[in-house]
Amino acid sequence: MPSGRSFLGVFDSLIDRILCVLGAVLFSQGPEFMQQYLQRLGGHLDEVRRQLAIFQDTAAKAGVMLDHFIQQTGANPDPGVARLGGVMSDTMERVGSLQSAHDALMHSALWERPFVFLRHLDLEITRATCTIYQPAVPTTLEGLAYAMAGMLVFLAIYHFALKRVPALFRWHPGPVKGPA
């Protein structure tokens, strides 16, 4: 009949394995989510560039540079036309912001990518990515690296935060002293 210690050892080993799989599966989705996010980011960037090209073409046909055209439009006494100046200006800023995020993600190294992703996170694009996200089994070196990191993180949490730290705070009575 197995002793209590061997049963706990088997249970502990089972938890280790479950956490390894869970950590690997969850963390390996990071590169896949970032890939799907990057595709949506690229789509947003293409669309805002198209809009900016229309504004640039309109300015060129008016015989002025886009910056000057935005100033003229923004100073127009008609409130609707003046707001169009703000739209054009916002479009220019959006192109710069999305291009910066796209370039940063495309050129980031494996271990810095999650931090670059978080630094350039666009909540609208993130929400849209979440609504259509499809989990995948990554077969890239990056997916393997993230899976290994997930295993290590989950095991570290289990062994250090859930097993060792609580053990430090358990009450251990001192030796019992007799009457003096």
Can you tell me about this structure?
- With 180 residues, this protein is an all-alpha fold.
- It has one domain.
- Helix content is 78%, strand content 0%.
- α1 crosses α6.
- The longest helix is centred in the N-terminal third of the chain and has 58 residues.
- It is elongated.
Distance between the termini: 46 Å
Label the overall shape. Answer: elongated
Helix and strand run = HHHHHH
Instruction: Bin the strand percentage.
Output: under 5%
SS-based structural class?
mainly alpha
Number of helices: 6
* Most strands sheet: none
User: In which range does the helix fraction lie?
Assistant: over 70%
What is the residue-mean pLDDT, rounded to a whole number?
A: 86
What are the segments in which pLDDT stays under 50 over at least 5 consecutive residues? none
Summed up, the domain count is: 1
Please write out the topology.
Layout: H1 4-61, H2 66-74, H3 79-106, H4 113-119, H5 123-132, H6 141-168
Helix pairs in contact: 1-3, 1-5, 1-6, 2-3
Summarize the structure.
With 180 residues, the chain is an all-alpha fold. The protein has six helices and no strands. Helix 1 (4-61) packs across helix 6 (141-168).
Notable features of this structure?
6 helices; 180 residues; mainly alpha; single chain
